[in-house]
Every structure is written in structure tokens, then in C-alpha cells.
Amino acid sequence: MVKENELPSDRYQHLLKDGVIELTGIDTKEKHPEPLRRVAVWDGKDKQAIEPITDRMSWTANTISELYKARWQVRIFFREIKQLLHIESFIGTSENAVMIQIWTAFITILALKALKAMTGHKWCLSNLVAFMRSNLFVKVDLKKRLGQPFDRGHPPPQKELQGVLF
């Protein structure tokens, strides 16, 4: 570490360190000779320290940590698109076609998450997608069925037997 920046006294509690570093490897120093900023952030969810590195020296340490979190959410979103919606590549490659596909996927994921939140059952998103696919053309009370997925409902009515004539 070349220089350690002092954290302000009114800092956010998740910020651990803020410093300037230089890369020392032969290839890395050649590719990136200017100094870089490294911020250590505590991730309370996973109970570990994360150290994002950037070349933006003018940003605050908190801005860097918040942008890293937002970047991670974008990565999770695209992973969900690939896994849940089975989208491997974009159909169209123009800017407009890609934007339409991203927005359509975003709306689909958002609708699925809203359905998941409305139900009383703890669905995994992948199971919910599979359930929706298998019941796409079935007329059911969706909210009730999603809330009680294992409830078989009422048994089918007994067939009336024709009486014996002889």
C-alpha cells in the first residue's frame, strides 16, 4: 500500500480501510502503471471483508462501496435471467433490440418476485418459474394455488352409477 487515507470520524461503520496502492507485478504494472484506490468494506450478510479496487480517486470510500453493491445486484439480475428464463444470448443485437429484451426480462423477473411476495408459501424462484410454466394454460385461482401449492383441493365428484335393470 502506497498511502492509507484517513477515514472520517463520522464514517459509515462498514468501511474498514481506504488506501492507494500500486501494482508491482511485471505484467500488471505495465498494463496499469497509475495508482489505484482500494477500499475495504465489511459485508455483514456474508461476514467477510470485500476489497473493491478502482482508478477513481475523486470518489468517496462510501460511494465506491455502494457502487460495488449495486454492481453486484446487476450481476445477480443477469444470472437470474440466464438461469430462470433460459436466455443464453440476445436474439437481436441492435441497441434497441437488446434494450427491449433486457426490459422484458426485467418485467418478467419483477412479476415473478411480486407473485412470490404475495404468496404465503416460501417459493424458490426457480420452482415458481417451473410451476408457472406447467400451469400456464390452466384456469386456476393463481393466488390461492401459489399460497397452497400442495393442497389437492376437493376430491373429484363420484360418478353416478346407472342402476341395474335386471
Concise synopsis of the structure shown:
By secondary structure, the protein is α+β, with helices and mostly antiparallel strands.
Q: Any overview of this molecule?
A:
With about 170 residues, the chain is α+β, with helices and mostly antiparallel strands. The protein has 2 domains: about 1-85, no CATH class; about 90-150, no CATH class. It is about 40% helix and about 15% strand. It is built from 5 helices and 5 strands. Strands 1, 2, 3, 4 and 5 form a 5-stranded antiparallel sheet that branches. A hairpin with a 4-residue loop joins β3 and β4. The longest helix is centred in the middle third of the chain and has 24 residues, at about 60-85. The termini are far apart. The model has no long low-confidence stretch (mean pLDDT about 80).
**Average pLDDT for all residues:** 82
Main sheet record: 5 strands, antiparallel
Oligomer: single chain
Q: Number of helix segments?
A: 5
Total domain count: 2
Return residue spans where pLDDT drops below 50 for at least 5 consecutive residues. Answer: none
Cα Rg: 27 Å
Structural class: alpha+beta
Order of helices and strands: EEHEEEHHHH
Question: Strand percentage, roughly?
Answer: 5-15%
Secondary structure tally: strands: 5
Shape: elongated
Estimated helix fraction: 40-55%
Task: Report the end-to-end length measured between terminal Cα atoms.
Answer: 101 Å
